[in-house]
Amino acid sequence: MKAIILYRSKHHGNTLKLVEAIASTFDDVDTLDVATLDKNEVPDLSAYHIIGVASGIYYGQFDRDLKRVVQAALKPGDKVFALLTYGGEDKWYVRDIDGLCRVCQADLLTSYGCPGYDTWGPFKLKGGVNKGHPTEEEIQGAVNFYRRLETEYGEILEDDYEKRMKRRAYEEAHPRGGLWTLVKNTAKGVAGKKKG
Ligand SMILES: Cc1cc2nc3c(=O)[nH]c(=O)nc-3n(C[C@H](O)[C@H](O)[C@H](O)COP(=O)(O)O)c2cc1C
């Protein structure tokens, strides 16, 4: 199962620890820090069976730049998983990515999250919260999460990918045309009927 994880980990590199642990354990996992992209650069994700989206939570959300890139890059039918670290309570932060996938007609399959060291704002005064997180156990949890994803979904995702790519290639070879083509074809149809 070929995967790419698009990530942004700008506070303490907490999320990056999860991403790196997965990428160093599984050969077929590429990573991309969206901070390395040019302003309007959109990565081509068409070679991947599944796409990971990973970020710390900033002001209650996944990183905005990451979301912008993901929204521009996702194609209908793409399969997605999310990874996150957060300073506060484990709320359903992944709703962000869920909504974004719906807009792109992609599917969010599952997510893994854990606490991350946080020295943001007032927490800085008391030395931060979640010191030592993600722990070794939490990082291993991310690796186990990915292993399970691959074991349980791998073949299904590869089959689905083959079908999607065939359909995409067919649609590219047989474009349906825009509104103007539709108007012309309708006009031709009407003219043909009158003649007969
Ligand atoms: C600017 C900023 C805003 C944050 N807002 C939240 C928040 O709304 N909820 C939360 O649980 N954690 C929040 N945090 C804590 C981070 O989500 C947490 O430290 C996370 O592990 C950072 O991941 P990173 O090191 O990969 O960037 C915030 C951190 C920063 C720097």
Can you characterise this structure?
The protein is an alpha/beta fold. It has a single domain (3-195), classed as Flavodoxin domain (Rossmann fold, 3-Layer(aba) Sandwich). The chain contains five helices and five strands. A five-stranded parallel beta sheet has the order 2-1-3-4-5, sandwiched between helices. α1 links the parallel β1 (3-8) and β2 (29-33). α1 crosses α4. The N and C termini lie far apart (56 Å). The structure holds flavin mononucleotide. The site of flavin mononucleotide has 21 residues, from α1 and β4.
Provide tags for this entry.
single chain, 196 residues, alpha/beta, Rossmann fold, 5-stranded parallel β-sheet, 5 helices, 5 strands, binds flavin mononucleotide
